[in-house]
Amino acid sequence: MGTSTLHLEIPASGVYLSVVRAAATGLAAQLQFTYEEIDDLRIAVDEACTQLLARRGSAETLRIDYHMEPAELRVDVSVEAPDRGDPLERDTFAWQILTAVTDEVTERSDAGGLHLSFRKHGGRT
Amino acid sequence: MTDVPFDAGAATDPRDPRVVRDPQVVRDPDEEDDGLDTEELSEDIARLSNERGVDRAYAKDLFRRFVSSRDPILREELVGIHLPLVEYLARRFRNRGEPLEDLIQVGTIGLLKAIDRFDLQREVEFSTYATPTIVGELKRHFRDKGWAVRVPRRLQELNLSLNKVVAELSQEIGRSPTISEIAARVRLSEEEVLEGLDTSNAYAVISLDAPAGGEDAPTVSEHIGSEDESLEALEYRAALGPLIAELPDRERRILYLRFFRGMTQSQIAARLGISQMHVSRLLNRTLGVLRAGLLAEDESN
């Protein structure tokens, strides 16, 4: 199985985070993630989205791309914010949370906006 | 602020500036819409009291005597003749996982409040007046118990049985189970299991995290020094400092062990002597509190 990708675009509001979480949960279940891995994943999704929502400025949507790979889910969250700084400072609690519950966190900002991505390994081995 | 008296007298007077045309306006603003339309209920109840033969003239006379004398015997009699109203309303809430008798008891508190406050000058049936107070009392009961979000009974039960199964399977296979393993054990589809697990974070399970204070102090005492140091350093840097400082000890400790010590939920669970699902709930709830605080701050800027 190669990579399958799923895109989700939600209005930039915390109200829709349950949908983002539910999608992540469903995909992780397909990848045979354990309950605990799924819980970590949900925390990461919440945290990444909340951080970008806090930086959304006038942006109206938040975009989430889920990339399913064998035994791994990669999630990219992005928002078209005019603000071009670091999406997330390394010395924040949010960064600490994200790095603790996932295997790799990356962030960048470009013309497309702010991006926050993470990888989470999982599944029965 | 649950039992706003329902001033139906005002609603009928077109000259009254307080005129209430839309029954929604009467609702407690922080109440979620749960499909209980007070006006519709009142109609049902009016019919109900006719059928049951509540003697209105008799009730009115009792009220008149009670208002002037405040005689507890009359009060008791008033409670007695209006108990069917409480039972009727309590039954509307019976699918939320609470025994009906308890609900009737809670509703009776609302009835007593309504009896004590009822004003005969108002040209309104007592049942119309009392309904919002009784319903308010019932709703508050659920809110206080943590079932702020209406969770169907089926999901409550599913969630409880999933808790058990996750714990059992973790024991048996020595790691956290997958969704398909859970589904196989409970003989449900993966979809249903996911729905049940989603429920666990839809409401705060306040009653589960029982004891405050003391119980886990000895096991982590060796870490308290470094823990405080690290959390304090963080508090200076992060906007959430005050929020973290306000957390209960156990929640702060779990936060620290998970995010700064890199311990897994299972490891934390073993250390604190609680289940992994319990750690999960506390963690999710704590993060929810912190995020809510963060976004509120963001919006006020």
Describe, in short, the structure shown.
The complex is a heterodimer of chains A (125) and B (301). With 125 residues, chain A is an alpha+beta fold.
Task: Tell me the series of helices and strands of chain B, N- to C-terminal.
Answer: HHHHHHHHHHHHHHHH
What gross morphology of chain A would you assign? globular
- What letter string, H or E per element, gives the SSE order of chain A? EHHEEHEE
Q: What's the helical proportion of residues of chain B?
A: 55-70%
Number of strands of chain B: 0
Low-confidence stretches of chain A: none
Question: Helix fraction of chain A?
Answer: 25-40%
Main sheet makeup of chain B: none
**End-to-end distance of chain B, in Å?**
29 Å
Pairing-aware structural class of the strands and helices of chain B?
Answer: mainly alpha
For the residues shown, what is the average pLDDT of chain B? 69
Q: Can you walk me through this structure?
A:
The complex is a heterodimer of chains A (125) and B (301). Chain A has three helices and five strands; from the N terminus they run βααββαββ. Chain A has helices spanning 17-30, 35-54, 93-101; strands at residues 4-11, 61-69, 72-79, 104-110, 113-121. Chain A is globular. With 301 residues, chain B is an all-alpha fold. Chain B has 16 helices and no strands. The model of chain B is unreliable at 1-35 and 202-227 (pLDDT under 50). Classes of the chains: A alpha+beta (125), B mainly alpha (301). Chains A and B meet through helix 1, helix 2 and helix 3 of A and helix 9, helix 10 and helix 16 of B.
